[in-house]
Amino acid sequence: MTQEIRTLTWLPDGGVCLLDQTRLPQEEVYVECRDAEAVAEAIRSLRIRGAPALGVAAAMGLALGAHRLQATDVTTFLRDLKGIADMLANTRPTARNLFWGLERISTVAEKHRDLSLPALKQRLVEEALKMHQEDLACNRAIGEHGQRLIENGATILTHCNTGALATVGYGTGLGVIRAAWERGKRIQVLVDETRPVLQGARLTAWELDRLGIPSRLITDSMAGDFMRRGEVQAVIVGADRIAKNGDVANKIGTYTLAVLCRYHNIPFYVAAPFSTVDLGLSAGDQIPIEERAPHEVTTIAGVSIAPPGFPAANPAFDVTPAGLVSALITDRGVLYPPFAEAIQALSGSPSVPP
Ligand code: MRU
Question: Which atom of ligand 1 is nearest to 271's Cα?
Answer without folding.
Answer: 15
